[in-house]
Amino acid sequence: MAKVVVTQKRCTVNPLKMSQSIGAALAFMGVHNAMPLLHGSQGCTSFGLVLFVRHFREAIPMQTTAMSEVATVLGGFENVEQALVNIAERSKPAFVGICTTGISEIKGDDLQGFMKMIRATHSELDSIALVDVSTPDFEGAFQDGWAAAVTRMIEELVEVPLLITHPSKQINVLPGCHLTPGDIDKLRNIIEDFGLDPIFLPDLSGSLDGHIPDEFTPTTMGGITVEQIRKLGSSSYTIAIGEQMRGAAITLEHRTGVPYRLFERLTGLAANDELMSFLSGISRVSVPQKYRRQRSQLIDAMLDGHFYFGGKRVALAAEPDLLSAMALWLCEMGCEIQAAVTTTQSPALERISTEEIVLGDLEDLEMRAAGADLIVTHSHGRQAAERLGIPLFRIGMPVFDRLGANHQVTVGYQGTRDLIFSVGNIFLASAHEPTPETWMPPGDNAQPFASSVMQ
Length: 455
Known about the structure:
By secondary structure, the chain is of the alpha/beta class. The chain contains 18 helices and 14 strands. It has helices at 20-28, 42-56, 69-74, 77-90, 102-107, 111-121, 142-157, 181-192, 204-207, 226-230, 246-256, 269-283, 289-309, 320-332, 362-368, 382-388, 412-430, 449-454; strands at residues 3-6, 34-39, 63-64, 95-100, 129-133, 170-175, 197-200, 237-241, 260-263, 313-317, 336-342, 356-359, 374-377, 392-394.
């Protein structure tokens, strides 16, 4: 089991971690006709807005309560009230998700109390679903905020169902923040091919998949509706993807009685075999022939690729669930994890095969990545990769110097197959034929061939 080490540096250099607040805001963007609202200063929202725009290359709906110095000292009730009234009047959303930030958390604003008082005096908000979530940006990380937001939506919106007298084909899916809109689309297709009706919470594949709308809307366009969230208790099963979603799945089970199954990852042969077996079992439908063929293609890709993956040393930096999925898959392909850096504590880290995992930044990764064959992280790792002369495979968020990040697929047999080709081609492109200066003949006291000739 890997030892988790917390960096003791006095400052962060080239940050890896993103705040809980924007993790929760992104989760709220997976709801149709929604408006995320950050309770804090304008700068808190601006930084998150820029990050999302650069990654998704789309118009991003986000608002702020614009806390000033005076409001921070005296309390932010009026700011929250005015923000909600303005949003209701101008944007007409069906859902508003309110996230706290460091300013409001340190001040100690009672956001739930604010919501009760505001609802009591503003009837124009009656038709809008309001969900608040505590996301202090001075602790935790992006996936913690995402998980907290999903859990709060379940607590506030999901209705306790009446007795269901027949099995439902409806399946709840709680995807972790490490899954892209492309991943969610792929999973939807897989589940539907078993005759099931999946409902994703959140569903970024509808709101941030990069499509052109018929007309402009200031809120999210696509995603799960509020009414669908309310009916999650009518499903027969819940599938949670990533350790970060365990808490939300447990909350949903306690509230509605819907049992859940957690899949720590859906990248890799064995992981997808488990998914197919589970879906076949609950649907009583045999695995479709096309997935049997895709499995065969994945095995062939693994055979083709293992020559280039075997023995390669890889340095990774990502949120815990993404780090775990990539590290376990790379180890299955024969790679060695030379360095691993992440953002927050998680049980998922226990299963990564490496000596230590650092809770730190991209400088910590750079210090440990020298001599590696590949660096795997988001776009902010490009400078470290250039300085070290090591190829970079971009994954996670943000990816702003390449196109199509929101359509990248790493789940399912096909997603894993394509991942083998993408990473394997990097290894192929960076491979160097041995020369007399670098070729090491066999033997305990081996030295480069050119040196031995000179002697």
